[in-house]
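does this look right to u?? magnesium ion version
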Amino acid sequence: MAEKEILVAFDDVTIEYEMKKQSLRAVKDFSLEIEKGKITAIVGESGSGKTTAVSSLLQAISTPGRVTKGHVYFYDNSQKIDVTALQGEELRSFRWEKVSMVFQASQSTLNPLMTIYDQFYETAFYHNAVGSKEEFQEKLRKLLDLVKLDSKRVLNVYPHQMSGGMKQRVMIAFALLLDPQLVILDEPTTALDVITQKYIFNQLIEINKKLGTTFILLTHDIGIVAKAADHVAVMYAGSIMEYGDVYTVFGRKMHPYTNGLIDATPSIIKSADQIEPIPGSPPDIRKLPEGCPFHPRCRHSTDLCRQQMPKTVEITDGHMICCHLYQEGGAAK
Ligand code: ADP
Ligand code: MG
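got this back:
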């Protein structure tokens, strides 16, 4: 097996939203390595901190949030960039040129008054990446071809003339415009029908294979992860509960929260009465319990879970679990 190459390392990152009355800790001690050339999914219920955690990679956490502990590193060939320290021009070129992010519901950020061509042009111009007109048009043709859109039909239209699925594909092409090494997609298909979703994920996998682009996919939908991702991090209340390759994590069914997500997901082979929602409601980070944040909803919880946050242990090579059920099976990290 080829040696794995790390592109991004989130190193013990804590992110807080400092509100008037209290400080909300949306992400806590978040450590995750993103492998180059792979699709890594971060999955968890809404509010678990996916967007906040990953936004730190672009210094794009929404106000009043900020990183209060830890670092985010980006490995650009042999150069190790501390993203948390980037400023000014360096930060500006890092965004889009190294890493781009398609934010949730970003289709609505397309400018309704500009054609798609003009919007691509504006961004490329801003980053000095237009070149000659012919080169640029050829580039757009290739990009749109990657997402299976016909440039002749798409470039001269306005956003309202396209379907949701087309707009989403335009956004993905947009994210690839400056040949970034990493593209982050935040709930890329949530508003789309199942057939269009499937189509878009097949395209992502194809782009990943063709261009070698690394992807981070944020989603609440575990079904998507199983189809599209190589690796998965399962998040709950701002912490990573389990991480590993998709086959291991879903196949071994070890962490009670991951199992809960799997059992709560409809599938073709499951009838409606076999879907078991996770009891209780998603955590409210304003009042998290002591110990493991999942304990109030966990069938296996013990006094220890109510008192102490478990350590993250490596169960087998590359399979990390944060749960008191598995503290002895691996080496504590
Ligand atoms: P996810 O992407 O998993 O749905 P988020 O990262 O959006 O989760 O949110 C994590 C937590 O941070 C939630 O409790 C959310 O309410 C809170 N949060 C997100 N953005 C802000 C903000 N701008 N101000 C205050 N709290 C926020
Ligand atoms: Mg989100």
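The mean pLDDT is 91. idk if thats expected tbh
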